[in-house]
Amino acid sequence: MYIFFTKCTCRSTVPPSMLLLRRMISSSEVATALRPFYFAVHPDLFGRYPQQRQVNEDSLKLLSAHLESLLSQKRILPSTPRTLPFYIRASNAPQDRGTFNLVKVPLERTIDTKLVLRRILESCNLPTEYVDKMPTTKNSSPNPTASSTYEESFQQQQQQQQYQQSFYYRKRSEHNFGRDDDDNQDDSPFEKEFDLFQFRIKKVRENETLKKWLRKQVVTATVRTKAVQELQEEVEKLREDVTKRLGLREIIYDCGWNVEHFRGCLKSLEKLAELHPGALDGLKDRTLVFAAFTGVSLEGHVMLFTGDVQRNWLELIKTIDKHDSYLSKLPAYEYALSQVLRNIRIGRRKFMPKAQAMAYASHLRKITTALLDYLGKSKFPKSWPTDLSQFELVVESEAGPLMVSPTGQLIVPATCPGSLLVDFLSNHLAEALEKQSSYDRHKHVERDLHARCVAQFRLLSLTKDDSVTPDRMIECLEKLLAQGVKDGLELADLNLTITTYYSVLTDGTVCIPWDWKQ
C-alpha cells in the first residue's frame, strides 16, 4: 500500500518538490513473515494438552489485536502487555512429545512493525530473512523539517478520526444498552477496542472475497490438517481392528462430528464387544454406520446413534432380526404403491439423511391407504398419462414437505390426503420432468468439473453439503477453475467442502459458500 502526501488546499501549502512517500507494510506481508511462528505456536497443535493450548490461544488473540492496531491505526493499544507467553514444543523427536518450552515473546513499544516482527521471530529462534528483506517504514523526504511537520499533521488527523470512532461507539452502546454517560466513562480501553474490532469484522465479512479469506485462513487450515493427521491414522487403525474383530463388512462415520468423536464411538463399540462378546454376532457381514439415529436403514445398514448409551446399541443388535423383517417387506410395499399410481417409480430422496426401515414401511402403508380411499370415491384426472413410470415419487415422514425437489423427484409426506396428493401431481408433473432432465444433464458436468478441480488445486478431497444442488455446484466449480487460473488460489493439500458459509473446521476442512464473491 502506497500513500502519497501532496499539498493541501485548505491548510498551509507544501511545495511540490517536498513530496513525502511512505511504504506501508500490508497485512499479507505480516502473515507471511509470521508463518513460521504460527506453525510453531498454533493452538491446534496442542489438542491433547489443554493448558498449553489455552495459553497460546489467549496470547494469539492479544497479538492479533496488537498487530491490527499497528497496521491500521499506527498506535499501540493501552491493553497490550509488554510480553506474551507461548508454549513451543521442545523438539519434534518422538521421545520429546509432550515436552514444551515456555517462551516470553516481547512486544516492542514502537509503531515500527518491522522491528516488532523481528523481535517476535528472534525470541523463538526462528529465521528472519523475510523480515530483513521487507522495505523500511521510515519516512523519506528531501527536507526533514517539512517532513516532520507534515507527519505531525497526519498523526493529528488520525487521532481525530479515532476520537470520532470512539464517540460513535459510546453513543451506540448507549442506544443498545441504555448506559449513562458516567457508565461509559468507566469503560475499559479494551471494551472500546473490542467494539471497534467487531464493527470492522462485520464490514470485512460484507465485502469478503474468496482470495482474501483464503489468504487469512490457509495457515490455520494447514496447521489443523497436519495436527489431525496423526489422530486420523490412529482412528483408521482402530477402525480396521474393530471391523476385523466383529466380522463387519465396513464401518462408516456419518454424523457430522469430528474425528475425535469417531474415535470415541469406536472405543465404545470395542468396550461393548468386550463386555458382551456373544451378543454382537448379529453384526457379522453387515455395514455399521455411526449416524443420527439407532435402527436399520433402508439399505440394510446397522445404524448406531452416536449420542446413545451402549445399552441402547445392545438392544438394537439383539433385536436386529425384527428390523430385518420390515426391511424384507419394503419391496412389496413399494410395488403396491407403484401399482396404485400407474407404475410410478418409488425412490429415496437424494442428498438427505438416512431413514429407518421400520418407519418407512409405516409411511408406505399410510400413503397407499390414502390413495385407495380416494379411488373408492373418485378417479384419477383424465389429463394424467396412462403410465407414470417416467416420474419418481418419494414418501417421507409426517413432517415431510409436499414439493418437487431440485432433482425432479416428487416429495410427499406420509399423512398427505389422497385428494391433495392427486391435485399436487396434476399441477407439478411437467415441472418434475423438466427438473429431472436438467439434473440428468448437470450431474455429468458436475463430475467432470469435480475431477478437474481436485487435480488443478491438488486437493486432498472435495465434497459438498446436501443443500448444494448440481446447478449450484457447477456454478461454484466453474468460478473456482477460472479464479484459480487468474489468481492462483492456495488450496493445495487441503480438504475443501462447498456449503453456504465460510469456516475452517477443527480437522482443517475448509468450508466456502457456493456463491462466494470474486
Question: Gist?
Answer:
This protein has helices at 27-33, 35-41, 50-73, 113-123, 129-133, 144-177, 181-185, 189-206, 210-246, 259-275, 310-318, 320-340, 357-375, 418-457, 470-487, and strands at residues 2-5, 20-23, 83-89, 100-106, 250-253, 287-291, 295-296, 302-305, 345-346, 392-396, 403-404, 410-413, 461-464, 495-499, 503-504, 510-513. The protein has 518 residues and is an alpha/beta fold.
Strand content: 5-15%
Q: How many DSSP E strands?
A: 16
Rg for CA atoms: 31 Å
- What fraction, in percent, of the residue positions are helical? 40-55%
Silhouette:
globular
Q: Which spans of ≥5 residues are poorly predicted at pLDDT below 50?
A: 1-22, 138-154, 156-191
Mean pLDDT: 79
Number of separate helices: 15
Tell me the structural class.
alpha/beta
How do the strands line up in the largest sheet? 5-6-8-7
Description:
With 518 residues, the chain is of the alpha/beta class. The protein contains 15 helices and 16 strands. It has helices at residues 27-33, 35-41, 50-73, 113-123, 129-133, 144-177, 181-185, 189-206, 210-246, 259-275, 310-318, 320-340, 357-375, 418-457, 470-487; strands at residues 2-5, 20-23, 83-89, 100-106, 250-253, 287-291, 295-296, 302-305, 345-346, 392-396, 403-404, 410-413, 461-464, 495-499, 503-504, 510-513. A hairpin with a 5-residue loop joins strand 11 and strand 12. Helix 13 (357-375) crosses helix 14 (418-457). It is globular. The model is unreliable at 1-22, 138-154 and 156-191 (pLDDT under 50).
